[in-house]
Specification:
Layout (H helix, E strand, L loop, with lengths): L1 H40 L1 H14 L5 E3 L5 H17 L1 H12 L5 H4 L2 H33 L8 E3 H18 L2 H10 L5 H6 L1 H15 L4 H44 L1
Parallel strand pairs: 1-2
Helix pairs in contact: 1-3, 1-4, 2-3, 2-6, 3-7, 4-6, 6-7, 8-11, 10-11
Length: 260
């Protein structure tokens, strides 16, 4: 009987965490659905915004609807991605409420900074891909076609390519936020990041070479922001460690003052 009650007692916290996780996921999905509906209403203006990078490529290209349901799929993609962007603060709030259970009171006070920085960094990554990377990528890939071949592209393929690229860069730009919280819980320290800095820079340039045309300027254009984010993550890790040391020293100072 005791073993049965002991197992039940041990499983109850796990069940509570799973219920909380499911509740946050459901709320995040509902937030995305609300944003999706709003973006569906404004799908045509948003489509014109997403088409702008195709006009910057110095290659003649024509976008076509090659499927009966092509524009329907395009509208859904725009609505879903736009819904995620609109609901970003709410999604990050749900993430924060989920991870705040394992954080102390000091860490919980940084909630506004977490939501603001995570949202702004994601938007910065999306804007970076939209303004710079997407036009360069289109020009590089389309220039590979010989002059005898017309560059007619399906509209749903183009929109999917643009959205995936912007989403990837939005996630990459979350590196400082991830580094901050890994440092907060003690998983990440600045020493390993500094030690393997050279290898990280090589990896960054390899990724830049894969994602961008074989042009040093565009490769640097992608690599430099990623290196800056990496260095900024090291700085954040150092700041977090100094803050933790200061918090650990405060109780000792209070005890010494009481003794005096």
């Amino acid at each position: 009987m005791r073993s049965r009650y002991k197992k039940k007692y041990q499983l109850s916290p796990l069940i509570e965490h799973l219920d909380a996780f499911r509740s946050r996921i459901i709320r995040s999905v509902l937030g995305i659905l609300v944003g999706l509906v709003i973006c569906l209403i404004f799908s045509k203006p948003l489509l014109n915004v997403l088409l702008w990078p195709s006009t910057r490529a110095n290659v003649p290209m024509e976008l076509q609807v090659l499927k009966v349901q092509g524009m329907f799929l395009v509208t859904l993609q725009i609505g879903f991605f736009g819904g995620i962007i609109l609901s970003l603060p709410y999604i990050f709030y749900q993430i924060w409420m989920l991870i705040s259970t394992v954080l102390g009171w000091q860490e919980r006070r940084s909630f506004p900074a977490f939501v603001t920085s995570a949202s702004l960094l994601f938007l910065a990554g999306v804007a970076f891909a939209y303004m710079l990377i997407l036009p360069f990528a289109l020009e590089f890939f389309l220039k590979m076609a010989p002059p005898t071949i017309k560059t007619n592209i399906s509209i749903d393929f183009y929109i999917g390519f643009a959205i995936r690229l912007m989403a990837v860069f939005g996630l990459i730009f979350q590196l400082p936020v991830i580094s901050y919280f890994l440092s907060k819980i003690g998983v990440l320290t600045p020493e390993p990041m500094q030690k393997y800095r050279r290898y990280a820079i090589v990896v960054i340039f390899v990724i830049a070479a894969i994602l961008t045309p074989p042009d040093p300027f565009t490769q640097i254009l992608l690599a430099v922001p990623l290196i800056v984010l990496y260095e900024f993550s090291i700085l954040l890790s150092k700041i977090v460690r100094k803050g933790k040391k200061h918090e650990e020293e405060q109780p000792d100072l209070l005890v010494s003052e009481e003794i005096e």
